[in-house]
Structure formats: C-alpha cells, structure tokens
C-alpha cells in the first residue's frame, strides 16, 4: 500500500472507531472509556511481552460485526445449524489462506485460542490413533454402537496413553503435559528439558527419553525457549518410537509464515499436526489454528462440537484478513526484522553484563536471568512496570524461585517491531532495562523479613526511563494518524 492509500485507510479507521465508541458509550460509557484508555496505555508503554503484538485496524475492525451472532457448529457445508452460507464462505477463505501461507495439507481455523487448538490436536490424535483402530477391530462405526463393556475398555485405553513434552522451566507450555494442566491429567506424561550447561535442547537426551518412554504423542514447540528447533531431527525421533509429532508453534508462527524459519526449522513439513495461536508473532486476532496432514484431517475436523464450542465466525473472518496480510512481502520483511531485533536486544544485554538463558537468541525472544541483579522475576517485572516497560516474569531452567516468583524475565520483539523499532531502539531498550534492574534492590515484608515480591526502585529512575522511552515511542507511533477525538 502506498503512503496516500495508507493515510486514507487510517482516516477511515479513525472515523470508524470514533463512531463505534460513541455507539458503545451510549449504552455503557465505562466500557468505551476503558477501550480508549487501553489504546493510550498501549501507545505509551514499551511493550515487550513476547506473546503480544498489535493487530492491524483491518483485523480489529473485522471482529466487530454481526458475524458474531451466527451459530455454525460443524464444518464447511456440514453444519448442525441452518443458514450458514456466509460463515462457510468466511471459514473457507480463512482455511485457504492458512494452507497457502504455511504450505499445509489441511487447515482448521475454528479453535478459539492456542489452548483450544492443543486440545483439538490431542483429541484428534487419540481419535485417529486409538479410537478408530479399536472401532475397526470391533466392527463398529462409532462409539455409540459399542456394548457398555467394550466402551469401558476403550475409554480406559484412551486414558492410558503417553505424552512427552518440553518441561515448563525449559520453556515448554502448560499444555505440553504439565501435571496441573488437563494435558498432564489426560495422559501419562513425561517431560524433556534442556542441557543444564548450555540451556540448549539436547536431541540425544530427547531421543533416549523417547525410546524409554515410547509416547503416543511427542510435543515440540515452546513459550520461552530462545532458540530455533530442528524439527526434522525431532520427527526422526518420533518416527523411531512410533509417536505422532505435534508441534505447537504458537509463539513463532509469524517467523514460519514470514519464511524466517525454513527447511528443518519449519515445523509444517515435518509434523503430523501443528497448532498455533494467531495473535502472537502472526499478528492476527486472538485465536488458534490446527494444521494437519491429510491423514489427521478428518479427526481434526470434528474439533467442534466434540472439543470446541461453536466457531466464532467474526474471529475466523479476522483470521482470514490477518493471513492475507501475512502472505504479503511486507510480512516477510517484518518477520526478519523481529528476529534481527531480538539479536540486537540480546547483544544489548550481553554488552552490559546481562545473563541470558542459552547465551542469546535466534528467534523472537530473549530470556534474561535476573538473579545476577539479586532480584526475582517478580521484583524485576514490577520494577520495570513502574518505569513503563511491560515484560513478564518467567522461569529459567531449574529455577530456584519456582514458577510464581521465578528468576527470569521474558522479552519479545514482535510488538515493538510492528511499531517500527530497529537495532538502535532495541539496544537503547536493553540499556534502559539494565538501568532499572541495576537500580532495584529486593525489599522486605511488612515484618522486616526477606521478600520475593517487594522491591525498592531508586528515586528518579522510573521517570528517567519513561522519558527516554517516550522519545522512541513518539518517533514510532502506534497506529499513526489514528485519532479517537
Ligand atoms: N501454546 C503456547 C506455546 C503458548 O505460548 C500459549 C500462550 O501463552 C498457548 C499455547 C496458549 O494460547 P492461548 O492463550 O491463546 O490459549
């Protein structure tokens, strides 16, 4: 889009939002105010949460329509409700874009979130690998035809399957078999970690664990691992032990779409089933998708209503718009900048004495171990927030402070790269964060004892950092030209 077209689109979006807020305000002004306040907050802070981004006005506006009002359980052309022709159109376009964008054999665009996408994936793998062969052996078309005794046997078999996923403190996600999560309860689960010295994924150790445990499902993918994964190698391991390889690319799907991760680093040609969110580095609406080989497609397709509630047609429409954006050349430039900027951020910390898990990054995130500053992740996160820097605390491998207080903060570049930040701004960001951490001391409890939450940030630092951030943020405005009043 050229500059004149861009300016025209921005002016249209401005009036659309102004009018929408007026309509909302007439019913519940506090919601209109909170919505406007959120834009101001996002415009005025250094957003470094690795899982967040800024979707385009086109994506955001697509969600605010009457498509939301239609029930459409089922799949395209095969719905449990009448009158779904427009939802069929929307879902078909979104799925077509997803297939083309990722080179996938099959795309299911209904999941409401990343966790829902993972549930669909688990359920469909169980249905394909365990339920379908059992039904075939018993000569039944579906579970309703089974005797009570056969059903009970099948139910137990389904509940007796094994899942191997990356542990939370190595960077995996809760849904990869973490015991408190449903995934840890529906499967016999074991977890693989990273090398204790390098922090890197150890493929030999993973292979050894897989050989011993023999999982039905091997889950790869992560929330807080700052490195690329060789999915071809992980597929070899899965094949050797007869596991289905499921990759959760929720965090890095933007780098896959933008062709930063190709060949062995692109999970789609190697995994049987790939799940993702659509709102992180992919920069779409909040939601999830499942990509699958033809073999798994029929069971994935039954996600709704077997696992999911009715599809959100307005969100599927916004996914289609976001995927169309991600298929443009400009998205490849963006994705490469996300990865380059993460390197600049990492180097900015390392040159100032920072301690990074794995010693750096080659994706979109860095994991800074804040124990070097004598702080917990919780203390660092809140001190940074006081200075207008939004991050999230995160476990580091073998974290002594547990998953609540943690010893790290996770920082990602997708959002600020969308605003146009480049090398210099990310280096400056590392400098400002280091300044906050070096000037924060652990505080004490009210009774004067040691605290993992309390902290004291030296006077004047928060204002200094806010002023320096404002200079960068003003140069790279969020939704430039979009005015609500
Ligand atoms: N999978 C991974 C790897 C994630 O990092 C996340 C989000 O934090 C999810 C799944 C869950 O996504 P959602 O919040 O959309 O359910």
Automatic annotation (TrEMBL):
Family from the record: Belongs to the SHMT family.
Major localisation: cytoplasm
Pathway recorded for this protein: One-carbon metabolism; tetrahydrofolate interconversion; Amino-acid biosynthesis; glycine biosynthesis; glycine from L-serine: step 1/1
Name the UniProt record assigns to this protein: Serine hydroxymethyltransferase
Annotated EC: 2.1.2.1
Residue numbers carrying N6-(pyridoxal phosphate)lysine: 280
Keywords in alphabetical order: Amino-acid biosynthesis, Cytoplasm, One-carbon metabolism, Pyridoxal phosphate, Transferase
Localisation per UniProt entry: Cytoplasm
């Amino acid at each position: 889009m050229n500059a004149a077209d861009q300016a025209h689109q921005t002016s249209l979006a401005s009036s659309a939002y102004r009018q929408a807020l007026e309509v909302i305000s007439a019913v519940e002004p506090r919601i209109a105010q909170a919505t406007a306040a959120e834009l101001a907050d996002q415009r005025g802070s250094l957003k470094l949460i690795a899982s967040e981004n800024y979707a385009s006005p086109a994506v955001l506006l697509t969600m605010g329509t009457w498509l939301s009002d239609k029930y459409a359980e089922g799949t395209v052309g095969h719905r449990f409700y009448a009158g779904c022709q427009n939802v069929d159109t929307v879902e078909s376009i979104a799925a077509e874009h997803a297939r083309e964008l990722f080179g996938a054999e099959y795309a299911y665009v209904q999941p409401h979130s990343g966790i829902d996408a993972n549930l669909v994936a688990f359920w469909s793998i169980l249905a394909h690998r365990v339920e379908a062969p059992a039904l075939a052996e018993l000569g039944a078309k579906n579970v309703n035809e089974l005797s009570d005794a056969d059903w009970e046997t099948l139910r137990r078999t389904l509940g007796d399957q094994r899942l191997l996923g990356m542990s939370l403190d190595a960077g995996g996600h809760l849904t990869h078999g973490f015991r408190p999560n449903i995934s840890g309860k529906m499967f016999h689960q074991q977890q693989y970690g990273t090398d204790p010295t390098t922090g890197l994924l150890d493929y030999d150790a993973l292979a050894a664990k897989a050989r011993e445990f023999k999982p039905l499902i091997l889950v790869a993918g992560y929330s807080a691992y700052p490195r690329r994964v060789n999915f071809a190698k992980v597929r070899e391991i899965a094949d050797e032990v007869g596991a289905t390889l499921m990759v959760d690319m929720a965090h890095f799907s933007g780098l896959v779409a933008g062709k930063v991760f190709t060949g062995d680093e692109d999970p789609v040609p190697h995994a049987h089933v790939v799940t993702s969110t659509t709102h992180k580095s992919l920069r779409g609406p909040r939601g999830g998708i499942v990509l699958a080989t033809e073999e798994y497609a029929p069971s994935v397709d039954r996600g709704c209503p077997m696992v999911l509630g009715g599809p959100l047609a307005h969100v599927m429409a916004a996914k289609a718009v976001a995927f169309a954006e991600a298929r443009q050349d400009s998205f490849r430039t963006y994705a490469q900048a996300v990865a380059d900027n993460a390197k600049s951020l990492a180097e900015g910390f390392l040159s100032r004495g920072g301690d990074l898990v794995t010693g750096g990054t080659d994706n979109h995130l860095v994991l800074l171990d804040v124990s070097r500053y004598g702080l917990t992740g919780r203390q660092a996160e809140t001190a940074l927030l006081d200075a207008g820097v939004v991050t999230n605390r995160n476990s580091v491998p073998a974290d002594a402070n547990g998953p609540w207080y943690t010893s790290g903060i996770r920082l990602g570049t997708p959002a600020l790269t969308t605003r146009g930040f480049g090398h210099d701004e990310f280096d400056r960001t590392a400098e400002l964060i280091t300044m906050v951490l070096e000037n924060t001391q652990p505080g004490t409890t009210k009774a004067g004892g040691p605290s993992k939450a309390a902290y004291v940030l030296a006077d004047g630092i928060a204002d200094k950092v806010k002023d320096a951030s404002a200079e960068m943020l003003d140069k790279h405005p969020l939704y430039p030209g979009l005015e609500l009043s």
